[in-house]
Structures are given as C-alpha cells and as structure tokens.
Amino acid sequence: MIDFTQCEVNRFRAYGGANGNKINIRYEGKSYMLKFPPTPGKTKVMTYTNGCISEYLACHIYETLGIRVQETLLGSYTDKRRKEKIVVACLDFTEGGKKLMEFAQLKNTCIDSEQNGYGTELSTIMAAIEEQTLIPQQEMKQFFWDMFIADALLGNFNRHNGNWGILVDEKNQTAEMAPVYDCGSCLYPQLSVEEMERVLEKEEEIDRRIFVFPTSAVMEQGKKLSYFEYISSLKNPDCNAALKRVYERINMEKINCIVEETPFLKPVQREFYQIMLKERKEKILDYSMQLL
Fold first, then answer.
1. In sequence order, which ranges of 65-192 are alpha helices (DSSP H)?
2. Which of 14, 137, 235, 238 has its CA 20 to 30 A from that of 96?
3. Reduced to 3 states, what is the DSSP secondary structure of residue 234?
4. Are 210 and 112 in contact (CB under 8 A)?
5. How big is the CA angle at 291 (ends 289 and 292), to the nearest 5 degrees?
6. What does the alpha-carbon distance between residue 199 and residue 207 come to, in Å, rounded to a whole number?
C-alpha cells in the first residue's frame, strides 16, 4: 500500500470537477492527480464515499477490456488534521504539451448542434461526433460505444460530456482519443458496507441495482437511458457492434483477481463487487448477446 503523504505537491497545477478535492503530486518521477474521496450526497451513514476505490477498480477493469484507460494507483494520505484517507492517484496524461479537450468543449464547436456542449441527448452527441473533424468519425463513434458497454458492466451513472474527450497537440496539429478517465461513479460508490450487506441478502435488491438504477447519463428524448433496456433492444447497430467487441474481451477470472488484490477492502466489499459485476454481466450483457 502506497502512502502519498510526503509526495512533492505542484501548487501551480489545479483541476476542476465536483467530485472530491484534487492536487497534483509527483510520485516516482511521474505527475499524478491525487483524488480525495468526496463527501456522500445521499447517505449519512458514510463520512466519505468509496469513489476512490471505484475509480481504481473501474480503471483496472477497463484495462482488461482492452480499452485505453488512465493509469491509477490506490493508496493513503494523512492530512494536517492527522486524518488518513483512501486516495487514488491518476496519471496525468497531459504532460508533454498535450491538452485535454473535453467532449463538451468539442461539442460546443459544432455550431449546428441543438444542445450546448454538456447536453447529453444521444442524437446531439452522435451529430457532434459526425460534425467534428479532429478525430475520424468512425474511430470516435467506436470509442463512445465501447465506453458505453464497459460503463454498463461497471454501473457508471455519470459518464457525461465533461469526463471523456481527446488529447490535442496544438504545436504539432495532432489529436487523439484521451484515455478513459474519471470512473469514480462506477460500482455504487455511495453504498456503505452495511448497505452492501443488505443488498446481497435479497435478489430483488440486486436486481433493482441492475434494471432500475444506475442509468446512463446519456439521454434519449429527455430520459436517461437504461443500460439493460437500451442494449437489449438491439436497435442501434453501433451499440450492437460494440457489445460484440467488448463482450469477447471480458475475462471474469481477471476481474475477480483485481477485486481480490485491491487493498483496503473488507471481505463483504470484495463479495459485493464480485457478485454485482457477475450479475451485471449475466443480466445485461450475456442476455443481450443471446438475443443478438
């Protein structure tokens, strides 16, 4: 387990976003964004959410799916009040002169769009992907739908236009898809250990967290997409193709090993993550593949 407390802090680099405090540190010669757990918004049982653990787990599971993702390290940090917190260090992929252009910013340059950059109506996202000229349309479309399928497995409720995008090198006039980042909204980060135990006791509670919520942040006709309903409808050929691509890369043995080897977790947390990932795969992705 890594203790990041004594790492050098770069006071001249700061980060936006609403989920928890963030500082820039150097660890083993590399630049990392160190994310602290946010305060829960929906429960009084927890002092801090499991967002940092979710970020770490989700990014490592993304890696097993063959999707380029931000490197993450899990560790601890003791603040000046001597409070130790579980934190996640995310490799800063903008070093070397590249700049992150969030999809929301890119979407804002698409003047024919019916929504602003942060509007998540699916039709406007697809229109912006087709209108933008920095990345080949098919490459960006495949990236979006692969990410959608992976987020369905991980139960990500907050993949909005501000937490995926492209890396731009203005000097060399080049652009590429940025690694997947900001996965702290995966894997039920606001559930306490006690709540996880209660969910595992009843099949209907597990099913509620698969079929009812979390939903995707992407909308269709003003309603957030249900991962199960949208994927299993098979109505979108691009989504179907992504389902095939991602599904064949899923290795539950590797995923279970990641959960087993993650530090700080209590036995019930390991059981909860493994069961929910298994259930989400079977009831959303396996089911949809059988229909397909």
1. 103-108, 122-131, 137-154
2. 137
3. coil
4. no
5. 60
6. 9
Tokens of 84: 């130790």
Contact in structure between 25 and 86 (CB atoms under 8 Å): no
Q: Which residue has the tokens 């990014």?
A: 59
262 contacts 53 by C-beta, under 8 angstroms: yes
Q: Which residues pair with 173 in a beta bridge?
A: none
- Is residue 33 within 8 Å of residue 72, measured between CB atoms? no
pTM: 0.94
Strand duo 165-169 + 99-102: pairing: antiparallel
Distances in Å between the Cα of 190 and the Cα atoms of 15, 163, 176, 240 are 22, 19, 33, 31
Distance between CA 70 and CA 72 in Å, rounded? Answer: 6
pLDDT tens track of the chain, all 292 residues? 899 999 999 999 888 776 779 999 999 999 999 999 987 766 555 556 899 999 999 999 999 999 999 999 999 999 989 999 999 999 999 877 899 999 999 999 886 666 688 889 999 999 999 999 999 999 999 999 999 999 999 999 999 999 999 999 998 999 999 999 999 999 999 999 999 999 999 999 999 999 999 999 999 999 999 999 999 999 999 999 999 999 999 999 999 999 999 999 999 999 999 999 999 999 999 999 999 9
